[in-house]
C-alpha cells in the first residue's frame, strides 16, 4: 500500500491539514479538527508546521 500523508484539496477549511490527516487514517475530519481544538497551544504549533511542510494533493480531473 502506497499511502502518503498530504494536505487535502477537497476537504479543507484553512489549508487542508485536518482533511489530509482524516483521509490518511480513514476517520472524520471533524474529529481531527476537534483534537486540534482541544490541544490549542501545542495543536496550533503542530498545525502551522504541518501546513508549511505537507505537500498538497495533486488536483485530479
Q: What structural class is derived from the secondary structure elements?
A: mainly alpha
Strand content: under 5%
- The total of beta strands comes to 0
Number of helices: 3
Q: Measured on Cα atoms, how large is the radius of gyration?
A: 11 Å
- Secondary-structure element string: HHH
Describe the protein's architecture and organization:
The chain has one domain (1-61). It contains 3 helices and no strands. It has helices at residues 17-25, 29-38, 40-53. Helix 1 packs across helix 2 (29-38) and helix 2 crosses helix 3. It is globular, with a radius of gyration of 11 Å. The N and C termini lie far apart (23 Å).
In brief:
This protein has 61 residues and is an all-alpha fold.
Sum up the structure in keywords.
61 residues; mainly alpha; 0% strand; 3 helices
Task: Summarize the SSE layout with pairings.
Blueprint: H1 17-25, H2 29-38, H3 40-53
Helix pairs in contact: 1-2, 2-3
Amino acid at each position: 500500500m502506497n499511502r502518503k500523508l498530504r494536505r487535502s484539496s477537497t476537504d479543507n477549511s484553512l489549508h487542508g491539514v485536518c482533511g489530509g490527516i482524516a483521509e490518511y487514517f480513514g476517520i472524520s475530519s471533524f474529529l481531527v479538527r476537534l483534537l486540534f481544538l482541544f490541544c490549542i497551544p501545542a495543536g496550533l504549533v503542530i498545525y502551522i508546521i504541518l501546513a508549511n511542510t505537507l505537500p498538497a494533493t495533486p488536483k485530479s480531473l
